[in-house]
Amino acid sequence: MKLLLLVLLLTATVYGQDKIIKKLEKELNQSLPVLVYENSIQPDNQKLKTIYSRTIDSVIIGHSYAGEFVNVSNTDQRTPFSNAYLTDFVSKNDFFLFRSWIIDSMARDCIIYGFRDREDRIEWLDLSKEEKKRFKKAKRNPQHGIHGDYIPFELEHSNYDWSKKLDYNDPELIPLLIDLYLTPQERFRGNKSIDYRKIGFQLGATGVHNFDASRVPIFVDAHYSEDATVHFFDQFAVMSILNDFIYLDHPITKIEPFMASAYCLWKSEQLNKQLDLDKFEVKCRLPKVEEVLSNPNYFQGESIEIYDHTKEWQITNNEFREFSEYTLDSVCREYLYINTDDHKLALELLQTEASYFFSESYSEYLTLDPSDRDFNRMKFHWNVNKEINWRKYGYSGPDSLVRLLGLDSILFQYQWLNAKSQSINGELKIHQVMGAGGQLISGLELILGKMDPFGNMIGKDLTLDGWIGTKSGYGTRSHSNLRRFIISDYAFIPQPKNISSDDSIADITYEQALAYYNWKFRIDKFQEGDDWQQFVFPTEEEFERIKRGESIVHPAEEIEYDSPVFRMVVELIPKN
Known about the structure:
By secondary structure, this protein is α+β, with helices and mostly antiparallel strands. It has helices at residues 2-28, 92-114, 118-122, 129-136, 153-156, 174-177, 235-241, 257-275, 289-294, 310-313, 317-339, 343-347, 373-379, 398-405, 419-422, 510-520, 540-547; strands spanning 48-52, 60-65, 68-70, 84-86, 200-201, 216-217, 280-285, 301-304, 307-308, 356-359, 364-367, 409-417, 427-434, 440-447, 486-494, 553-554, 557-560, 569-574.
């Protein structure tokens, strides 16, 4: 009878786990094979690599086996009732969902602690109606919090109200979120983007995502493929710049091992919340070496398909004439904007849609002042969709202004990202000094990035993201001056009237061609699904071949992953 009960109990347990595994597979959108250990297989020590900090010499931050992150220090004992399952490789899409969750969490922190009104803050938290009423009526304490209107301790540790949608373009929220973005000086072509140096995840502390030095950096630093990049606009430079947008179904690369561990911790939390199991806890972790050995599924790299650049790199006279007309139009708008006496008339040349704008200096919305022309010119783009009414400005047309200015050629100015130089690292080293009490204190010695022959910095100004109090090595390569890698360049373009109207290949210089490519193929306007190879530009030798009417086809290429990839082991652990 006892044996029968034991068999029934084991059968029920296995059946219960099968149901849980089906739920897990649905949540992860993949099948989960059971790990089968082959004790007879021995590790190949040549494939086991020690990973050192990229900023601090001699600090070990993880390990990999055959190009896959592994945990060599995991000594957890599995109970007889816990099963382990191995996932597929974590993709960019998977990892970027994690990153977006962290950004969204940090944004909600900014909102909760940024709103002056207590009721506005409370609405962003997952509280019952009774809790909301109680906290709204709590007495004010001028010694705590923002403007004396503090958030009670219990409220600080509440969950976010994830049902409340976050609109990053909401005029009411922008002043509270502005610290998450790059400073205006560091933005490429003025586009707002998240400052990845501020994004972090605090291991072991659920719901705490702040800007302090103890968080784990989590944003991918895509720019460290210096050896692969041959020139500023080749395939590797473009892939580096567009890392977040291409090959999203491929395994995530260019991350550190502690980032992979942070993802596993986050995924454990998410799965436990979603499944809400009574008898089991879900634990995600990096695999051990023997688990990788028993379930080999190695990825060597990714493929770049064969690509014919001929049509994109050929520039006809008609195409170059269109570019010249656009450049001339911009020059004319610049002249009219500066020399028109009427402030409101000058403002019509800019793309202003409202009578107010957000000022990052004041962190609030200000009324648009037409007389503040210099500021408005920096703030807004030209309104190129609206044609110039020349007579309102005192001219019969662009030709009269060209004659007045005596223009032989037109200056076209543009910006491009220097991903090749951005990949060059400086170093951060640990050094020790004797403290007042006779104890050795670990500190940091900064060695700046590399210099060019003229003494100009070309590499990274490294700063330490994270902490090294216990030599954990959470420091990642970071820039204290992203602006250096935004290159301003220019080229002189002939006037439209001096360019033929035909489809023959234009006789232009390489510098003029690069200006045209950067105008025609705007990498900052890339959208998911676009062909990323259109932003690859020729070398000077390749451009001369194009001018001679030759075709240029880049062959298919296999590129190895430049950092380890990772899978997760998902364990079911019985609750006590």
